[in-house]
Amino acid sequence: MRISTVTMFEQSVSSMNRQQSEFMRVGQQIASGKRVVNPSDDPQAASRAVRVSQSIAVTQQYGDARVGARNSLSQQESILNSVSDTLASAKTKLVQAANGTLTDADRDSVASELRGMYEAMIGQANATDGNGRYLFGGYQDGSEPFVRAADGSVNYVGDTNVRAQQVDSSRLMPVADNGITIFQSVHSGAGYVAEADPGNTGSATFNGPKVVDVTDPAYGDPFTIDFQVTAGVTTYTVNGGPAQAWAEGVPVLAGGLSMTFEGQPADGDSFQMDVATNMNTDVFRSFEKALAVLENPAQTPAEQAALENTLNTVMREFDNSLDNVLTNRASVGARLNELDVLDSVAGNRTLNYEQNLSDLVDLDYVEAISEYTLRQVGLQAAQKAFVDVKGMSLFEFL
Question: What range(s) does the Flagellin N-terminal domain occupy (predicted)?
C-alpha cells in the first residue's frame, strides 16, 4: 500500500503534538505541585476534592464564628467580673452603714459612695461589644436595655431572648445573656428573704430568717408575721393563724424557719418571709431601697428600725444577686472552655480534610519527575523521527 508524503507528515506532527502535550501536562503538574490540575486529569478525584474543599471552607467559617463568640463572651465575662466586685463592695458599705454609732452625716457619706456604685452598675448593665451592640439587651441590642423612669428608678426595656451563634455544625451557643438573667434574677436555691412592711411604726428589728428544719411540710411557703398590741400585751400571728405570745429575743417559728425580733413592734406591724425568687430580685431596686433609707435622717426609733431592717434585707438581696452573677460568670467560663475544645476538634478535623485532599490531588514528585524525563525523551524521539521522515524524499537525490 502506498503511503503519501502528506500522511507521513501528518502522523509525525500528530505524534509530536501528543508527546508535547503530555510533556507539558507533567511539567504543569510539577510547577503546581498538584496531580489533578484540570478535572479531566482525574474526574473522580476532582469531584471528591471539591467536596473536601467545601468541608474545609465550612470548618473555617465555623472557626470565624467561634472567634466572634469568644470576643462577645470574653467581654461579658469581664463585665460580670466588674459587677461582682461592685456588689461585694456595696455589701461592705452596707455593713458599715449598719453600725449604730454612725450619724446621719456618716450615713449620707456612705450613701454617696453607694450611689457611685449604683451608677457604675447601670453603666455595666448598658455595656456594648466591639460592634456597638448592647450586650444585655437580648435581641433589642440597638439601644440601652436599662433606662431611667420618671421617678428615677431603673427599668429593663430589652427582651427575654438570648443571642446565640452557630459555632459548630451541631452547636448553637448563647453568646450574650439578657439583662433579666444577670441583673433581675436570683439563683433558684437562694433560700428565704425577710422584709419589713414599709408602713411599720414600731421599733422592732428582725434577725433571720434562719432555716431550722427543711423537712417541715410548710417549708417553701410564704409567711406573713403580723403583730397585735392590746392593753400592753404583744402577740403575733403567722399567716393569720391563732395569736401567740411574743417575747423579745425569743425565736418565732414558721414552716421550718426561725425569726428573732428585737425592740418593740407596734400594733399592726408586719413582716414577710418568702423564697428569694418570689421577693425582690432586681439588683437596681436593692440599691434604690438602700439609698432611700441612707439618704434620709433616722432620728426616731421607728426610723432607726426601718433603716436596720431595710439594710438587713438589702444585704441578703445583694448576696443572692452576687451568687447569681457568679453562677452566670461560671456559665460564661464554661462556654469559653467549650470554644477551646471545639477549636481543638476543628483543628483535628481540618488536618484530616487536608490529608484527604492531599491524597486526592497532590503530586508524587518522584513519580512525576520520572514521567517528565520519559516524556522529554519521547518528545525528542518524535522530533528526531519527524526530521528523518522529512528527509525521505526523491527530491533529495535529484
Answer: 3-140
Distance between CA atoms of 340 and 361, rounded to whole angstroms? 31
Adjacent-strand bridge partners of 210: 258
Q: Are 210 and 256 in contact (CB under 8 A)?
A: no
Q: What does the angle CA 161 – CA 165 – CA 169 come to, to the nearest 5 degrees?
A: 130
- Phi then psi for residue 269, to 5 deg, are -65, 145
The span from the CA of 133 to the CA of 148, in Å, is 19
Question: What domains sit in the chain, N to C, each tagged with a CATH number?
Answer: 34-186+281-362 (1.20.1330.10), 190-280 (no CATH)
Residue owning grid cell 399592726: 268
Closest-CA residue to 80 (of 336, 330, 319): 330
Closest by CA position to 293, among listed 315, 264, 325, 266: 315
Torsion of CA 302, 304, 307, 313, to 10 degrees: -80
Determine the Cα–Cα distance for residues 42 and 48; give it in Å rounded to an integer.
10
> Quick check: helix, strand or coil at residue 9?
helix
Asked if 191 and 294 count as a contact pair (C-beta separation under 8 A), the reply is: no
User: In whole angstroms, how far apart are CA 15 and each of 6, 8, 24, 377?
Assistant: 14, 11, 14, 13
Q: What is the pLDDT of residues 318-343, one digit of tens each?
A: 999 999 999 999 999 999 999 999 99
Can you give the pTM of this predicted structure? 0.80
CA 287/CA 184 separation, integer angstroms: 12
Q: Give the integer Cα–Cα distance in Å for 75 and 329.
A: 11
Instruction: Compute the distance between CA of residue 259 and CA of residue 208 in angstroms, rounded to an integer.
Output: 5
What phi and psi, each to the nearest 5 degrees, are found at residue 144? -60, 130
Identify whether 145 is preceded by a cis peptide bond (ω within 30 of 0).
Answer: no
C-alpha cell of residue 282: 432586681
